[in-house]
Structures are given as structure tokens and as C-alpha cells.
Amino acid sequence: MSTPGTSDTASRVDDGEILISGGTLIDATGAPARPNPGVLLRGDNIEVVGPGAAEAAGAGAERIDATGRTVMPGLIDAHCHATFDDVQSNDELFFHRDPTTAALVAGQNLTKMLRAGVTAFCDPDTLFAMGPSLRNATEAGVVAGPRISTGVQALVTSVGGTAGRLIPDEGVVGYAQVVNSQDEAVMWTRRHIKYGADWIKIHATGLLPGRSGEVLGWSRDELRAVCDTAHELGTSVMAHCRSPESVTACAEAGVDMLLHASFMDAEGLEAVIASGSVLCPTFTFLANLADFGSAVGAGAGMEDIFRGEIAATAKMMRSAYDAGVPLLCGSEAGFALTPYGHWHGREAEILVNELGLSPMEAIVCATANGAIAMRLEGRIGTVTEGCLADLLVLDGDPLSDIRLLNDRSRIVEVISRGRRVDLSGPWPSHGPIPGAKVRNWATEILTYERAYD
């Protein structure tokens, strides 16, 4: 299995040079912003950061004048579903897709993310187990896209996940692989690693009829078995956790990254700190529904429910951050509420507004900390010598207005793998795909009274 972003990329990238001069540099190491002394890229490598960059550049180097602008690392989206296609329901996602079309659409989704400043992302679970193939094709240059780390499918017990009874009692549906015993959990962990997984994803919580909130659908022994098996094979584990009990259980079992960690309590925080787990709260989906759900016909009352979940979780996330737990930024792109290319920078804004992080701290979460999700710590996410050449040039100062990270109109340059991304031309889009969208007969029940009211 190749490590994300490090296979044969160097052999296919030209040894051309790009010199970025002028403007303000945010290197995402946590150091204060400073006048850009010069950044020299050579192939897929940040060769020189400093006054010597211009002297080291060859006569044929491409030159980017960033005067009045901001130079910073590319965004790393630590929770993104590149194969979903902005779906409106799990029914649509599970039962109205085919592998060939999904793969073709995923290629277009990668273009949208690049143009939005995402130069790397982690995809926890994918339709038709295509994650490793999509990653490999991108690294080989078959399609242009950000660097990818990926799972294969989410491991789900027959209790189900957020899709409830749409999850079958056994087998595969959509992004989910159902496991019905500890032995099956171990077996599928090994198989997913064989198929090329960078991560094993556990869907730890799910919905049950008549229960409020999500409940833990795994035993402690099952969780521990997945983690032990994956770790023995050099693979990390993440888990979808949207209950206090699940946060504690997964951290204690050895899960490396907790997604959502909704309603984390003091016991859960203590377990996270003790285990060394990292947190990817992925508030963006919740915040979009809470703030803008009414504009797109979200279910009545959902805004208040999700706003309450953010408020209940943000306080403990801040406590975790203050205790030294890394926070990562994820958009959960792939759904109608989080379409590709539109919301990848919003999580940083939420960390500022809801957790009270400074814009610089939030930028570090959206860049340098994302290297953990890519399994490329120290190699990606900062503008430092020896790191991979993924950078942005922004028209404006995100330290003054963090919302600029989410404004495509302010992205002047995206450099991915040492190459400038073409930002010209119309925004990538596609028309209706036959059979891909669920069509309801009506949005309301046609009673006699409604007909003649």
C-alpha cells in the first residue's frame, strides 16, 4: 500500500520552479504572519523559504507576484466524501447510483475541490469501495485532484448507522460494510487494508426507532479488535461518534481520530487526552443546516436541534484544544447541505465563532493539523522547507476575516503538487443523470381538506 501523496508523484512532476514573492506569509506553524521573504518551489517540494529564494531560482522559474496578498498552505479537508455527488438522502445514495457514473462524477468533484483551495483531503468511506482506486489514479496523474487519504467502506454493525433501517442485516450498501461479529470485524479490517485503505472507519453510532439521538452499536471488545488489527498492520482507525458513550468507548479502544465527538462529556475528554486521539468535529454540516436550512427546505425543527448540538459540543472541544488535543477541520462535503467546492473553509470560521479560537489557530487546524488525516505529519500543511508544494495565494487577509478561506473569488492561485491549477473557465457542473435523483410524488399529503381549503 502506498502512503498518500508519496508514491510515484515525484517522478511525474516536472522539475520546474515557481518563485512566489511579496505579500504576507502565513506558514501555519503557529508563528506570526510576516512579510513573505520568498518561497521557491522545485517540483513537488518547497525548496527555499526566505531571502535566498530569489537567488536560488533559475532563470526559467515561473514567478508569482503576491504583493498585497496572502501566501499560505492549501486547505486540508479532514472529513470529505468525494464519491457522493451532493446527495439529498441516504435512499438516493444507496439505491440510485452505479459504479461507473459514480467514478466519473467523483473525478469532477476533485476538480471542484482543487479550485476551492483544497489541496488534500481524507475520505473516510466511499461508494463501491472506490477510494483507493481514486487515490491511485490521482497520484498517477490520470485525473487532477487533491492528495487523498482514504478508507474503503465504513464498518457498521447490523444495528445500523445514521441511515437506520436502510442498512441491511448483512452485506454491503452504499458506503457501509455490515459486520455481525468480532471475527467479521477483524476479517473486514484486514480485507480493507489489503484493498488499499489508509484508514479503517468505524461507524460507531446510529439511529434506532423510538430512541432520541444516536446510540453506540458496538461492544468494547469489537472496537478494540478493529483497532488492534489495524494498528498491527500499520493502519489508522477513525470513528463516527455522536454520543458521549461512543466517544469514551472509541478513545479507550484506541481509535486514532474521532469524527464529530458530539456531546462529549468530561469522561470522554479524559479518555481522548489519555489515548492521544485527535478530534475532527465537522461542525460544517450542522452549522449549514442550522443557519441556512430553511433556504433549502430542511425539515422543520432541525435547525434548532443541530444548533443545540453545536453549542453542547463546542465547549468540550475548546477544553480539548486547551489540553493540547489537535483539532482538524472537515466539511463533510458530498451532501446537498455541503456541496463540493463551496464550504471547505467554513469549519475554520466556526472554530473562531463557536470555540473562540483566533484566526491563526483556526488556520493551523485547517492546514497543519490536517497532515494527521493525510498520515503525512511533517510533510504537508505548512509552508516550510522540505514540505510538499501545496499552497494558496489569497486576495486579502484571512487573519482579519477568516471567511476569506471560504470565498473562491478571493483565491488567486492554487498550487497543487508544485503545479499551478487552472482557475479559469466556468465552474464544473453536470446536468441531471437519469435515475440518480429520487423524485417524490409530493412534498405534502393530499388530504381532502387540503385540496379544498
Write structural notes for this entry.
The protein has 453 residues and is of the alpha/beta class. Helix content is 32%, strand content 18%. The protein has helices spanning 9-12, 53-56, 90-95, 99-115, 131-140, 182-194, 220-232, 244-253, 266-275, 284-292, 302-322, 346-355, 359-366, 371-374, 448-452, and strands at residues 17-21, 24-25, 34-35, 39-42, 46-49, 62-65, 70-73, 75-77, 118-123, 147-150, 154-157, 171-173, 176-179, 199-203, 205-206, 215-216, 236-241, 257-260, 278-280, 391-394, 411-416, 419-420. Residues 5-14 have low confidence and may be disordered.
Summarize the SSE layout with pairings.
Blueprint: H1 9-12, E1 17-21, E2 24-25, E3 34-35, E4 39-42, E5 46-49, H2 53-56, E6 62-65, E7 70-73, E8 75-77, H3 90-95, H4 99-115, E9 118-123, H5 131-140, E10 147-150, E11 154-157, E12 171-173, E13 176-179, H6 182-194, E14 199-203, E15 205-206, E16 215-216, H7 220-232, E17 236-241, H8 244-253, E18 257-260, H9 266-275, E19 278-280, H10 284-292, H11 302-322, H12 346-355, H13 359-366, H14 371-374, E20 391-394, E21 411-416, E22 419-420, H15 448-452
Parallel strand pairs: 1-6, 2-7, 8-9, 9-10, 11-13, 11-14, 14-17, 17-18, 18-19
Antiparallel strand pairs: 1-4, 2-3, 4-5, 7-20, 12-13, 15-16, 20-21, 21-22
Helix pairs in contact: 6-7, 7-8, 8-9, 10-11, 12-13
